[in-house]
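Handout, tutorial session.
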Amino acid sequence: MEVAVGPVGSVLLIGVVIAGFVAGIWLVVHRERHLRQLADDGVDVEGIVVRQCGEEHVNPYPYYIRYRYRDGMGQEREQKIQVTREFWTDHPTGSPVAVIYSKSKPSISGVKYQVEQERKASAKHGR
């Protein structure tokens, strides 16, 4: 079965592909900026897992946790991140989790093990 797309459909399809590509580049740049921020002025704190999202038997993703931490001004903040199955299993709701947040921009944070993995990868690639 053939589907005739036409010139308007072709333009829309090309637009969607380009938008996806641009969004992917933005995401990588955004993540790199956050990691640089955490490397520059990161503060280690203990957070708590407030919710696990995902199913025990789904392979291999999505596994998410939502964690809460308190910044230097005493404000509670929450973040939801994707994690490995092992990390998800080892950090049930209510368990402590090591967090790094930016002293200058406390809304930027990450789980310590992921931040350290990214730091090592960046150092290995000379970034």
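The second record follows below. Compare its token runs with those of the first.
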Amino acid sequence: MWKIYSLGLLALVPQVGLKIDASPIISSFSGRLIEYIGDCPGWVLDGAITRGDFRSISQTTPPAKELRVVLTNLRTAQNVERTYRKTNRGSHDFGLSKLGNSPCDHEISYQIFNKETKAVLETGRFVYTVEIDEYEEPRNAQWKRESICLGGGSRSNCEIFLIVRDRKVCPDGNIGPTVEIRNEQFIDYRPGRRNRR
């Protein structure tokens, strides 16, 4: 079973930082990069770092409807601004890619302020770590039956020519780098000429 996220091994629970939805504050997030090899090459990134329900919270400033928080990644200059009003959860959620999800330590500066008066209630910094494991997995095309009406339309209402055949297709629906076809049949629907050959 894949690890969804890992807690930072700290003696003290952080007082400010990121959390996933209603989780405790978390200092380390993991993901996995899968590289597909075979007929259908490609890659996909998944794990906690791809989720869209990250939140920022400070235990010393309770959320309130008039508050907002600005987070800035001091390494990449990416920033996120959200309302800071959800009780026990902090800010409105966001994806980690908006703040920084590359595999390294990310130092974040933050500012909690009143959106109406612009008064700053709290500023500071915190750090979170992203770890990405890399894997290779085979991904090959599979045979799939398809029908092509050369005159337009579907198989059920084709009026001219119909090709029925098996073609190797990748799981995402794309054709593999090598086009492979078998069991091809040609059907002529023109009046008086319907045949297979």
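Points raised in discussion: The first strand starts at residue 16 and ends at 20.
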